[in-house]
Write a structure and sequence with these properties.
The complex is a heterodimer of chains A (about 140) and B (about 300).
Chain A (H helix, E strand, L loop, with lengths): L4 H24 L14 E10 L4 E7 L2 E8 L3 E9 L5 E9 L4 E9 L5 E9 L1 E8 L4
Antiparallel strand pairs in A: 1-4, 1-6, 2-3, 2-5, 5-8, 6-7
Chain B lengths: L1 H20 L4 E5 L2 H11 L3 E5 L14 H8 L3 E4 L9 H7 L5 E4 L8 E5 L6 E5 L7 H18 L4 H26 L8 E4 L5 H7 L2 E4 L11 H14 L3 E5 L5 H10 L2 E6 L12 H16 L1
Parallel strand pairs in B: 1-2, 1-3, 3-4, 7-8, 7-9, 9-10
Antiparallel strand pairs in B: 5-6
Helix pairs in contact in B: 2-5, 2-6, 5-6, 6-10, 8-9
Classes of the chains: A alpha+beta (about 140), B alpha/beta (about 300).
Amino acid sequence: MRGSPPIQAALVLVGLLLLLIPLRSLTSHREVTPAVAVASVHPKPVHLVVRTTAVPCRFQITYLGKILWAEDAASSEVAKDFDIEFPKEGIDLVVDVSWATPALAAIEISVSLTDDGAIHKTLWGQGKASDVLTFKEEN
Amino acid sequence: MGLQSACRALSGCLLLFATAKVEAEIKVASFSTVLSEIVLKVGGTNVAVASLIKPGQDPHEYQLTPGDLTAATTSNLVLLSGKGLEASYLTNLREALPQSVEVLAVGDQLPGLSKSKAGTDGGSNVTMEDPHWWNSVAQVEKATVIVRDALARLDRNHATDYQANAQAYLTELKELDLWAKRQIAELPRDQRKLVTSHDAFQYFAKEYGFQIDSIEGLTTDQEPSVSHVSALIAEIKKQGVKAIFLENSLNPKVSIEITRESGVKIGGTLYADGLGPGEGETYAGMVRHNVNTIVDALK
């Protein structure tokens, strides 16, 4: 290499600094979503209320592949308490319902975790209805 | 007697003409495997469909060929996925098509999801719309209605056929969507973490309550950066992700390396970019395969 030692050293230093620029751009590019802490979910007491516009009404509520509650309801409102895992992402309840009448009818599922309020979801159908209803706590 | 023979001969000729007349009313060129299925289901025997992107082919890598261009120019309707998927050849295609050909970018009429990614200069971010709308059954239902209306507009004589065919297909799609929801409901919502080869499942994730991450971005034409892969491995460990998923049209090299580094398993191979050989030869088969693979791996 030609030139005096101080000039050679300066050139090497400039070269190293130029290498740092692409390295910086590579390491600063992150697309990963914000970290979410993994927490174990403990069962919580949950109050379920089922209201129907027509009786008799046969319904089945399934949670995580297991039947949580199945009933032939003779009254327009029935309620039950359960201890279930309720993560902050919410829960999905699979609801299957059938009515004796083929006319349009509705079933409302209310889920309460506290005394403060309930989350309500309604399912409509003629003679029968099925859907997956998501219940999530308001932040 | 002579008159009877002449009548018989005439009716025979008419029958022959009617048989010859049973040919497609509308020629469709489709640049999407999913749209090919939709237009065949809705159009029935009244449409002849040239499926220019074949099942299993990566639509991100597709190059317009002279043969495909000829098929498009001789059609009445060209179906595009839209949302930028055909960006690399759309200008050439539009310039080459005669005005008589209707071009329908179906995805452009559907609700979209966007994601920002770093620009090519590594600096300012650019926002890209996710083109993989078919990974939501609800979006495919909307696409079916758009295709139905286009066919009815082009061929009013068979509008009632298109209406009836679309209704039958929509019923199948609604049943498919409910089936998917029921299967996915077996997974706790806090365990719905989906890591895939490229970012093709935003619509699926929104529909069915998944958090998603991917090795590559919205397209498959760029290798992931080292820093992105490192951050992804850290995130997989932190989030307790159970499995990562390969795709039928992509090289699994990086995904397999990530499983070695993170200790998670390969959950299976998904159909991300449309229909493909095997179970994914039909749209329902594709959805059922993807949902079963994801649920089995994350349970």
